[in-house]
Target: Uroporphyrinogen decarboxylase
Amino acid sequence: HAGRPARLRPMEAVSDSPLLRAARGESVSRTPVWFMRQAGRSLPEYLALREGVAMLDACMDPALVTEITLQPVRRYGVDAAIFFSDIVLPLKAVGVDLDIKPGVGPVVASPVRTLADVAAIPDLDPSHVPFITEAVRTLVGELGSTPLIGFAGAPFTVASYLVEGGPSKDQARTKAMMFGAPEVWDALMRKIAGISAAYLEVQVAAGASAVQLFDSWAGALTPTDYATHVMPHSAAVLERAGRLGVPRIHFGVGTSNLLTLMGEAGADVVGVDWRTPLADAIERVGDRAVQGNLDPALVFAPTEVMLQRAAEVIEAGRYARGHIFNLGHGVIPSTDPDQLARLTDFVHTYEPRG
Ligand code: 1CP
Model:
């Protein structure tokens, strides 16, 4: 289905779209589906646009952001667009010296270590990100009844880049600050929570109709440490987002042990990675919707195998308050787009057994 036009249904309001209905726990005509990291990474039309353009420059160019965000919606007919940006973009916008290095990820020039380092980071104000407002407004006009999901990084995951100075496997320095310098940690988490909440507010004010808080690396924590040192700050972001009246999705990787807490932090929808069976996740999050959770590597398996496992995910999702189909983490860069097109069509046309 490459190149087919976005399915714009002007008669259908965004608020009645399958994604937003599922997020609110309402009945749906079909299971909504989108893919984390659907924008960027794997599409040839994306790679062509990005040629010679640095990641952060792309994020600050409203025309590029609009086009890249729309590409997967056109190609797959997914039920949501995810805003093309990055969790470190708001830090860049307030003046933190950082870059996104190809093949590496975010790299921070002067890692944060002291209270003075934290105090030197300005709070985010909408005037720091006029290009975000412009891109969101244009996108919402183009998307018609397809919702745009805005996003931000959760305080722990963003802190891990600021403290480590770049991607880290063990988050050792981040945890050293969390355990050993609670004053600095608290100040840093409050600072990031304020920036992330303000960044979500800008996106919703411009027309985003759902938000996702990415706490990708929260799975590195024990439930007690998460509850004590991290959850209150994520809850502060989700509380501010809740005042915007849009559904809040809360996602992390390796968070089997944390799913109950991540729901209680103030999520309407809890994102589930592929390691936790969806039925177990549903039990843990109680009366909330779930999002997930096909293993992104299954897209590399034979189509029938992928679709069989997708059917199992859809069947499990029927017992949730609401279910948004997704992968358990981002699209792997070498993914074949045709497999994602088949997967999207399968989810859309799936007929429940019995
Ligand atoms: O669909 C999309 O791609 C939407 C845009 C998007 C999102 C939602 C990007 C573009 N990044 C993110 C979020 C993000 N960024 C997360 C949370 C989601 C997740 O867990 O997948 C995280 C942890 C980051 C940090 C980041 N940015 C990494 C991970 C590095 C690590 O620590 O292992 C990387 C590689 C990036 C760069 C990046 N962000 C986005 C793109 C398309 C890229 C590749 C950049 C390039 O082309 O150089």
In short: The chain has one domain: 14-349. The longest strand covers residues 148-153. The chain has 15 helices and nine strands.
